[in-house]
Write a structure and sequence with these properties.
Blueprint lengths: L2 E4 L3 E6 L4 E7 L1 H10 L4 E8 L4 H9 L2 E9 L4 E7 L6 E7 L19 E4 L4 H10 L5 E5 L2 H6 L1 H10 L2 E5 H8 L4 H9 L5 E5 L5 E5 L2 E5 L13 H15 L4 H20 L12 H15 L2
Parallel strand pairs: 1-4, 1-8, 2-6, 4-5, 8-9, 9-10, 10-11
Antiparallel strand pairs: 2-3, 6-7, 11-12, 12-13
Helix pairs in contact: 1-8, 6-7, 8-9, 9-10
This protein binds adenosine monophosphate.
Length: 299
C-alpha cells in the first residue's frame, strides 16, 4: 500500500563544527519520503521553485517517489539554514526563507486521494488540514510538527491533533504543548486531545510510544559518529509509515516493529549531510541494523 507524504521540500544549508554544506536537498517531506521509499510506494505532495536543482528531482525518481503532487512554481524553493553546536544535539535556526511555500495550496491529484496511509510531515498545520480535507477515508493518518507551529498556530495544531490516528513530536515540544515535565504524563495528556497513538521522540535516546496495546520504548541505533542529525525525526516517521504500509495485520500489532525500522533508517540519515548517506543505502542495510538492534535490546 502507498504512503502519501506532505511536508516541506527544501534546500537546506547546514553548518556543523566540522563542515558547512550549502543548498542540500532537505525538508521534512524529502527526508520522510526517501525513508518510506525503502518499504513502500510513496506519493509526495509539496512545492519547489524554478531554482530547484534537476539532480534532486532525479534523486526522488531514483527512489521511485511519485512526483505528480509536487508543484514547480515561479519563485524560489523554501530555504532553511541551521547550525549545530559541538554536541550535535543543540541546533540554531539561522535562516528560513519561505519562497514558494508562502502561497502554497496543496492540490491532490485524483490518484493520491485514496492513499491508505497519510503522513502529514512537519509543515504549517493549515496545510496539513487542507490535505486531510481532500482524502477519502484513509486507513491511518500520522502528523508530525515543530515548535514554530506551537508558537504561532497552536489552535490549528490542536484541531489537527483531533483528526489524526497518530501524533509524533519531540520531548521539548511535548513539554511546550502539555506543560508536563514527565514524558509519560505528557503522553497521557496528548491522548486526551484525540490520537490513539502518540510518540515522543528523544533524539539520540530513541522514542516512546503510547498505544492501546501499551507503551513501547524504542531505542536509537547506537552510532559512534553523528555527522548531521537534520531530518532524523522525519526519517524516523517516514520509515515507520513506510514499514506499516507493507505490514500485514493491525496497526497495533505492527507499530512497535515499524518504529524500530524508522529508528534504524534515521541512523543512516545522521551519518551524512542532508540525505547524502540515506540515498546510498539499500533495504538490506536497514535489515542488518534492525537485527543488531534486536540483539542489543533482547533480555
Ligand atoms: P528535523 O531535523 O527533524 O527537525 O527536520 C529538519 C528539516 O525540517 C529540514 O530539512 C528543514 O528543511 C525542515 N524545516 C525547517 N524549518 C521548517 C519549517 N518552518 N517548516 C517546514 N519544514 C521546516
Amino acid at each position: 500500500m502507498s504512503v502519501l507524504i506532505v511536508g516541506s521540500t527544501a534546500l537546506d544549508s547546514i553548518k556543523t563544527p566540522h563542515a558547512e554544506n550549502p543548498r542540500l536537498l532537505g525538508g521534512s517531506a524529502s527526508h520522510a519520503a526517501v525513508a518510506a521509499s525503502f518499504f513502500s510506494p510513496v506519493k509526495l505532495v509539496g512545492v519547489v521553485g524554478k531554482d530547484f536543482p534537476k539532480k534532486y528531482v532525479t534523486l526522488y525518481k531514483r527512489h521511485k517517489i511519485d512526483l505528480e503532487g509536487l508543484q514547480i512554481q515561479d519563485g524560489k524553493t523554501f530555504h532553511w539554514s541551521g547550525e549545530y553546536e559541538v554536541n550535535m544535539n543543540n541546533r540554531r535556526t539561522l535562516l528560513t526563507e519561505l519562497g514558494v511555500f508562502e502561497k502554497f495550496t496543496p492540490h491532490l491529484p485524483e490518484s493520491y486521494k485514496t492513499s491508505p496511509f497519510v503522513l502529514l510531515a512537519n509543515i504549517a498545520p493549515a496545510l496539513q488540514h487542507h490535505v486531510l480535507d481532500q482524502m477519502r477515508k484513509p486507513k491511518f493518518i500520522v502528523a508530525d510538527t515543530m515548535d514554530l507551529w506551537l508558537n504561532i498556530a497552536k489552535d490549528d495544531l490542536v484541531r489537527l491533533i483531533k483528526r489524526v490516528d497518530g501524533f509524533v513530536l519531540n520531548d521539548s515540544e511535548a513539554h511546550q504543548l502539555t506543560e508536563c515535565d514527565n514524558v509519560f504524563a505528557a503522553l497521557k495528556k496528548i491522548h486526551k486531545l484525540g490520537p490513539r497513538y502518540v510518540i515522543i521522540k528523544k533524539g539520540s535516546h530513541g522514542s516512546i510510544l503510547s498505544a492501546p496495546g501499551g507503551n513501547f520504548i524504542c531505542p536509537a541505533y547506537p552510532l559512534h559518529n553523528v555527522c548531521d542529525p537534520t531530518g532524523a525525526g522525519d526519517s524516523f516517521v517516514g520509515g515507520m509509515m513506510g514499514y506499516l504500509a507493507t505490514a500485514r495485520g493491525s496497526i497495533d500489532a505492527n507499530i512497535r516493529r515499524a518504529m524500530i525500522y524508522g529508528s534504524v533508517t534515521a541512523s543512516f540519515c545522521c551519518e551524512g549531510f542532508g540525505l547524502k548517506k540515506t540515498t546510498t543505502i539499500e533495504r538490506a542495510d536497514i535489515d542488518k541494523r534492525v537485527k543488531e538492534l534486536e540483539k542489543a535490546t533482547r533480555f
